Amino acid sequence: MIGTIRKHSSWLWILLAGLTIVSFIGFMWKAPTNGGGRADGGFGTLYGREVSAEDYARSQREFYFYYWLHYGSFPDHNANVKRADIDRETYVRLMLLRKAQKLGIHIGEDAVVTAANEMLRSLGRGGQPVPMDKFISEVLAREGLTLADFRNYLRSELTTQQLITTLGLSGTFVTPQEVGQLYDREHQEVSVQAVFFAASNYLANVHATPAAIAQFYTNNMAAYRQPDRVQVNYVAFAASNYLAAAEQKIGKTNVTAQAEAYVNQNGLEAVPGAKTPAEAKAKIAETIVRQRALEEAKVAANEFAGALFAQDPVKPENLTALAKQKGLTLVTTAPFDKAGGPEDFNAPVTFTEAAFKMSADEPLAGPVPGPEAYYILALAQQIPSSIPALEQIRSRVTQDFENYTSTVLAQQAGTNFQVTAAIQLAAGKTFAQAAITAGQLPVVLTPFSLSSQEVPEVGERVDLRQLKQAAFTTPIGRASNFMPTPDGGFVLLVRSLLPMDQVKKTADMPQFLAQVRRARQNEAFNLWLQNEANRELRNTPVYAELMGKSAKP
pTM for the complete prediction? Predict the structure, then answer.
């Protein structure tokens, strides 16, 4: 298990959760490659200095961590990643680091260590740091990244934040009067009545006749298309099967000594969930053995794969025969698509990727690495994209038809109510009276403002942003337009704006002022960034992409 990072620790450096990580040009990218340079192999210049291949590759690896932090996976798992996006973000990051060097911005070792410690805890649960072995095996090692790469990323982010602070200073100047007006706009509450039109209330009015179902299916056939799927056979070499062999090879005495040394150096708090030194040592020893067991599983998988791929001709049936010969369990998955992966077990992304790379000409794959095992795969069948016949999915189509039709009926009722409510309000009736006359139930909502995070009476029926938009764009005393939602819709009556709570405003102002200054600081920095990029990046291969394909350097 991973413990607190201290100065000169060789274990792990991890990013700081509290940082405001900036995405400069809407980036999406792939893992570092040899791309990015000019046709002649050059990488251009920034601030009069050449960009080396090493500079470019390091910046790309830093983006790798950025993407993982924001999206929970690495960008090479995203089919929408483009080469141009990689280049743009890489060069912008290089430009920022060069600018920081020119300004003499330097991040000390203590700041990096502090950032690492804070993020370790933020990634864990219950205030405990994330297990190191899990982070290394499931994040770094699987993508060919090193702890040095990760440390560089963290230092780069800290440098960028200091650069934002320096160059965005002008944005922090804001008058108390302006801040007070902004606070009032964000926090003044509105009193609202609402009538909700839910599709579920109109299901009884839906007539799902066979003809209507057939017509609905015909009109929406594209929505029922199934993606390409595959079915594979596989043999798993699980680390759990090699624990005894791993412990024997390392030596029980050696494992115990390593565990004791780690706990003695890092303390009990370095092992999440451990309540005593003995328990902490046991957990560390288990981690050491499991890591070695995974290495043993890899060796066994490689030996098996060597024998499998040596057979001629290469065919998927060879895996079945060899597994039987070796006394190994052969597993057949249910058909699965690329987006969802196998439903039979929690397969790593690498398993799904390998499955979809196989073909009739190359029906075998592996060893495929995973956090708990290595896999050898054989193609069982490829199932091309198709639209099932109505009879195969009639129950699904029927449910879709009922949901769609009931939603249409709910929205028609809401639209009609908006008209009648406006007429009755003009005649002196109340909103509640208009609702009851229409057979609807008016709901008094808890007062809310633009900064409110929830309105209890609404729940998940309405998107909160849509509710706020309707409330704060409708004149007081008037009913809103009918606002459609995926499940029906709603109509509001804005009763009044409530007076500000001056005591609360006074208490909130210091924090609100800091938030406004940060936002203005980022705006000022982004304006500088745009101008700087227009000038400095014209000497790099990415210039044409930034300025448009018709731009001339």
Answer: 0.60
